[in-house]
Design brief:
Layout lengths: L11 H12 L3 H10 L2 H28 L6 H9 L1 H17 L1 H16 L4 H18 L4 H26 L19 H13 L7 H4 L7 H37 L4 H10 L3 H33 L17 H20 L3 H31 L3 H22 L3 H21 L7
């Protein structure tokens, strides 16, 4: 076994790029249509998601500044509730981190096919697997190389997604928002909760920087700053894009399309719009995929370092990359790609389920934070301000989860059952 050395090779800019890349993905291209059927009330879901994402970023910011020798949700559950809680949090987080890659792969492949022409279902899965393999091999390189590539990919996707809505505003028609008046028979609170669940998919990954804390220079200050700055940048892009797209196409037209950005690009740029948005979508999805695959390897290896996962997860290559964990994640992602192809409305169902399980992990971190606040803060004012933050984050998680609680619990139960044999195998390991 090659023992991974602690490489302090990630700085602030590289870490911000990981935060942005982990969150800014396929959602920007599909969410405007998903929200359009809910009208203007659906926009409130965005506001709730933005507030919830920033609240969670603040929670993870404080947690990561206190627990810097490790990283990720498992470390916080371990510190607050002990080894079993740490294991199941880490195991669920690791599994959901690579299972959700299927959504990014499907989105990237769909846009790639618009440029190459239609292919069969089997050819599509093979193409997705090849893309996944290529990014997995990249994640096995030196961490400093991954950081530089991640920064470049983030710039390639963030700049267009920030500039394009500014161009869209030149063609903006405020009157189109009049068509989004809420249905009087609908329940506004339920609608906001539903759209908050949909839109929060755009912020999944808010905690990714904490999983690489051991590879960061000055993690006690760099990680919190990167979390907050990165999340605010992502929120700005999502809000600008959603409002500008609605201001050009309107709610009714967006409801009838699965490619809202393509629709708007054609209105603004004409025939070249499809090619432009296809290339941008591929870059965005592959950049996010790069961040998530890197993060999934770090999650598993840190759990091994904290004596929660068995020795196989500690095996690394000459660059210190957790090669076995990356390989297992690659193999485990393939069934989800197949499931998406064979299940009716597979994409939407998969996105909703993945987001719900992420919310369960975030909720566990909120509970851990609530318990640790009393240990960390003696002054009453500081303690109660942190309690207010933690309860606000937990309330947001509950508010979003209530819309898809059954699916979330079923998938969570499946992950926990799969983890039981691994936990039994880990019993011989000494306590961390």
């Amino acid at each position: 076994m090659v023992v991974s050395r602690c490489r302090k090779e990630l700085g602030f800019c590289a870490l911000v790029s990981i935060v942005i890349s982990s969150q800014l993905g396929s959602g920007v291209f599909v969410l405007p249509s998903s929200l359009a059927k809910h009208g203007t009330v659906g926009l409130l879901g965005w506001l709730v998601s933005v507030a919830g994402a920033i609240t969670l970023a603040l929670v993870f910011s404080d947690l990561s500044s206190r627990i810097t020798n490790s990283g990720g949700p498992h470390a916080y559950a371990l510190e607050a509730f002990g080894r079993k809680a740490g294991f199941f949090t880490g195991w669920t987080y690791w599994m959901i981190s690579w299972a959700s890659n299927s959504i990014l792969l499907v989105t990237a492949t769909k846009y790639l096919i618009t440029m190459t022409g239609p292919i069969s279902a089997i050819q599509t899965i093979i193409l997705e697997a090849l893309l996944l393999m290529a990014i997995t091999l990249l994640s096995a390189a030196r961490i400093s190389v991954i950081g530089r590539i991640g920064t470049c990919l983030t710039a390639l996707k963030y700049v267009p997604l920030f500039v394009l809505p500014l161009i869209f505003f030149l063609f903006f028609d405020i009157a189109l928002f009049n068509d989004g008046a809420p249905d009087q028979s609908s329940n506004a609170i339920s609608t906001v909760s539903t759209t908050a669940l949909l839109t929060f998919w755009g912020f999944v990954g808010v905690e990714c920087a904490t999983s690489a804390a051991h590879n960061v220079r000055n993690p006690e200050t760099t990680v919190p700053r990167a979390l907050i700055v990165g999340t605010i940048c992502v929120a700005l892009v999502y809000v600008l894009n959603t409002i500008s797209v609605i201001g050009i196409a309107g709610f009714k037209e967006l409801t009838n399309t699965e490619a809202p950005y393509s629709l708007v690009m054609n209105k603004v740029f004409g025939g070249i719009g499809d090619a432009m948005i296809s290339m941008l979508a591929i870059v965005v999805c592959l950049s996010t995929l790069n961040s998530w695959i890197f993060t999934s390897g770090q999650i598993a290896h840190r759990a091994y370092t904290d004596k929660l996962f068995p020795g196989i997860f500690g095996k690394t290559n000459k660059h210190g990359a957790p090669i076995v964990a990356l390989t297992l994640a690659f193999c485990g992602s393939i069934p989800f790609l197949i499931l998406e192809r064979i299940e009716q409305d597979g994409f939407d169902k998969l996105m909703s389920r993945m987001c719900s399980v992420f919310m369960c992990v975030y909720l566990a971190c909120c509970f851990a934070y609530i318990k640790l606040i009393g240990k960390w803060y003696g002054a009453r004012k500081a303690r109660w301000s942190r309690y207010a933050l933690s309860y606000a984050a937990a309330t947001f998680c509950f508010f979003v989860l209530v819309q898809d609680a059954v699916s979330a619990l079923l998938m969570l139960a499946a992950f926990i059952i799969l983890g039981i044999p691994v936990l039994v195998k880990c019993k011989h390991l000494p306590s961390p």
